[in-house]
Amino acid sequence: MQRQVRxxxxxxxxxFAALIGQLTYLQVxxxxxxxxxxxxxxxxxxxxRVERGLVVSSDGVLxxxxxxxxxxxxxxxxxxxxxSPWLGYSSLRYGRAGVERAYNLELAxxxxxxxxxxxxxxxxxxxxxxxxxxxxLDAGLQRAAVQALGDRRGAVVAxxxxxxxxxxxxxxxRYDPNQLDQDWSKLVADENRPLVDRALTGRYPPxxxxxxxxxxxxxxxxxxxxxxxxxxxxxWLVGGFKVRNYGDHAFGEHDFRAAMxxxxxxxxxxxxxxxxxxxxxxxxxAFGMGEELPWRLGGGTGSFPDPDGMDTAHVAQASFxxxxxxxxxxxMALITAAIANGGRIMAPYLVAEVRDYRQTILERTEPQVWxxxxxxxxxxxxxxxxxxxxxxxxxTAAAVPGVSVAGKTGTAEVGEGDPxxxxxxxxxxxxxxxxxxxxxxxxxxxxxxxxxxxxxxLEAALR
Amino acid sequence: MNTRNRELLFxxxxxxxxxxxxxxxxxxxxxxxxxxxxxxxxxxxGLFGLVHVLRRLVVPHADPYLxxxxxxxxxxxxxxxxxxxxxxxxxxxxxxxxxLVFFALVLVVFRRYRRLADYKYLIGLGGIALLVLTxxxxxxxxxxxxWIRLGPVGFQPPEFAKLxxxxxxxxxxxxxxxxxxxxxxxxxxxxxxxxxxxAPLLTLWGLGLLLMIFLKDLGTSLLFFCALLxxxxxxxxxxxxVVVGLSLFAGGAVVLYHLFPHVQLRVDIWLDPxxxxxxxxxxxxxxxxxxxxxxxxGRGLGGGYLLSASGNTIIPALETDFIxxxxxxxxxxxxxxxxxxxxxxxVQRGLRIAVRARDDFTRLLATGLTxxxxxxxxxxxxxxxxxxPLTGITLPFVSYGGSSIVANFGLLALLLLASDxxxxxxxxx
Lengths: 463, 429
Fold this sequence. Notes:
The structure holds 2 protein chains of 2 kinds. Chain A is an alpha+beta fold.
């Protein structure tokens, strides 16, 4: 009997050794894979224990802070209307979006740049903290843009054409990121899609603001000069398609300068069809339409139709920004920035600096050229044409007293409802400090609806 | 040093670990240093000190390591439960006191434990009666019918039934083991023991198992089955019983798998919990995540992700069946292995009593009690680590649960009595 008891003991040794083996497998061998498993929400839970980095505007306004509850830090957005939706959210339940997602590694204190600081904190037994983001966004200007747009569906983008720094960025309707977990199901079901950032990813027909690309191509290619003469009878039949001016207005004999100021569709259809589909597509791409933007925040989702499949009628429509031409408000602002900045588009950026909590600068964004679609001469000529739009053309509502403003209106026809109202422009025209792009959905003409919003933003910026 | 003083000495580290552990959790939760944080440790010191004094008087020759191990395990249990839910920890502390009182009662009342063998049939029937009672009056909790209510107190009879049945089998096998080893006839070339001696055994065995199946308590059924197999093997020395038993088990397992959806579910989850990681596999998957989060050294007492923002435990049944997952996360592989080794030492001491016993009843009793204890530990630890399919039973002395704590202190008392009996005869000899 004693022998059997001893055997029984060795059986238990075997069983418990198997337990220790399995435990070692789980806690050492398989642990890395288990920790990063898709169903493992402990990673987010871990990050919620770290004091997340702050997000601060260029003028020092706190846009995203933290609320300490129990062991966790929860995001707190003191200026909800200014940050929604581009800043996004950071939720235990619904994950992250926007800047919160794109810069999560920095904000959570896990980027490579923070390795040394984290190690020092570890050995000094200090709690790890995320890095702060100092934005290029100006809270004062942002407030002006948000107020000017109001509750209308649409977007406003303002940037510095000389650097590419985003100065204002708003999209409406918005949501309150502080209430995200409570409002989630309602926000997802909302047909106005408040979770979508229209400024970065909203794809709109540009209407007449696309004439800037056509004009730039024509001036660059030398097919048109500002005083090139055109004749207009109110409509023009091309490839079986009748091009009409807005309101069927007949402008008679005029030059290209006037065609820009008055946004004459027939003239641009003639200029565009003369350039041809391939040239228009090439310039659209050269201005960044549909190109991946050189930053982490996405966007760049506009598109120009495939030139091989376009007949003359289609090219004519595309020449005034209809017929399946789609742009995002940010893309339209960057196209305008090329004209304001001597033909060169600076890479857009929203985060100026990443700083750790000791205010050591971990990363600073240096302005750099992204695209150079046209020459400085062509840009200067086009700028003068745009000044005419605001001085005595369709965009007079964007005029700011004492400042020379360059701009272009757009009224994009859509399948249902009133047209989308567009305005893009910059000021001062001879030394551009700010580019602004405004789109308001189903709201009427660009000159009456969008231009006043642009003026409010320009005024706030130049004040 | 005599065994009594050795036990006293080994109780000290248990008390130190308890006091420091409570102080850590207390300080983390209150976010301040407080001398009151040392109070729980002091209370434990007092309680186990009292029990130690009683044990010196009643069973002076008993094994000196069992009580300190029990003290360490049960205070670690209360510590983890306290970390999860302070209200539960207070109840568990109360149950610990009840358990220690029960321990003292068993020590005093059954001082002449060999006389238990005289009442073996009564005890065996008592064990079955407990199971029948559960089946008739029990309430279903989490799909298993285990609870009956006695006034305000919930009570799990199967926890006690296992003690009754072990005593019965030890006594019965002591009587008939000679006869079981003598083969009178052969079947298919295999020597068979006389059926009339095997019959009562098989009847009770089958009855117990059947009841457990009706109670849908897989863990306890498996526990009975394996423990009795071990006893049979030790009593007869014949591997044939083990082989036949295991084949019976394999056949039964296949039948159970096809007959009962809840058995099928358990096995399917074990085979692939990732099929439905948010639904059926959730509990096991979260347990694996907890172990992975703990790593080598753990996240520290109070540092684990055990509770969601709403205060519920991330792993369902964390304080009972899955308490080891909490230990694995907060104390790491190092702490987990230490706990497993504590159980192994307990098993070693228990079987040592069996080896040194002078009479067969004591030997079988110690073997049976230790086997039940060790197997229960293996089944639940294997279940939460996905080594074997999960069966819902408690981790002895650590899991939350009054019946479990009290019954296991009964087990400890019987084991100490057996130990004292064995050693006493040695000293007299």
